[in-house]
Amino acid sequence: MPHAEPYTGPLTADLHADIVRAGYYPQLVEDVLDVALAGEEVVAHLVQAETTFDNEVRRHLTVLVLTPSRLVAAHVDDHEGDKDAPASAAATTEAVPLAEIRSVTLTHVVARPAEYTSGGESASEINLVVGWGAVSRLELEPASCGDPGCDADHGLTGQLLPDDVVVRVSSTAEGRPAVRRAVAFARTLSAATAGRAR
Questions:
Q1: Does the pLDDT value for residue 91 go beyond 90?
Q2: Among 30, 24, 26, 27, CA closest to 11
Q3: CA-to-CA distance for 56 and 51, rounded, in angstroms?
Q4: Fewer CB atoms inside 10 A, N or C side of the chain?
């Protein structure tokens, strides 16, 4: 069996390996990241592939790369072709200064919480949301007055939530190592946005 040459491209070997493992246009992903990173050092990264099924199979790849000064987010999506145009992919990158990041939200979904032990790996799913104010999500629900017998229309109430980048990692779909990687990235990003990057 031939011996593989060591990776010598512009990204770190770990980031390259994770992009190749995701298997979603790796050369395209690496090229757009190389442009966005502009030679800056990679401190940490998270690569997450997502496949959804509706009338067709849709693939989406999110790559988050933390540098000493910025968070670079890359998104790659399939675009269905038709008789006049072939199928294509769109790769978008956004580079956000760390000082602009307003929130890093990490939701741990834990099955059987009564059995949770401190320091354990009980999270079955991790949802990482990073917000810097470019995109927000409005969640509305009917408002009430607190009187259980009241049937008057009190309008709507809701929350405006940051929603610039959302990454969901499930131990069922991706395995426990993927959940650990997501938590480690969130920890590093949280420290960096607090000015305590390690």
A1: yes
A2: 30
A3: 10
A4: N
Range scoring the smallest mean pLDDT among 3-7, 96-100, 190-194: 3-7
Torsion of CA 30, 133, 51, 169, to 10 degrees: 90
Are the CB atoms for 165 and 102 separated by under 8 Å?
Answer: no
Looking up tokens 């010598």, which residue turns up?
8
Phi, psi (deg, nearest 5) at residue 128: -105, 125
Q: Which DSSP state fits 194?
A: T
Q: In Å, how far from its chain's centre is CA 104?
A: 11
CA distance 18 to 30: 11
Q: Quick check: 131 and 102 in contact, CB under 8 A?
A: yes
As a whole number of angstroms, the longest Cα–Cα distance in the chain is 76
Q: What region, left, alpha or beta, does residue 164 occupy, with left being phi > 0 and alpha being psi -120 to 50 degrees?
A: alpha
At position 97, the amino acid (one-letter code) is: P
At position 145, the amino acid (one-letter code) is C
Residue 103: name the closest of 181, 180, 169, 194 by CA: 194
Contact 68, 46 (CB under 8 A): no
Q: Provide the phi-psi class of 120: left if phi over 0, else alpha when psi is between -120 and 50, else beta.
A: beta
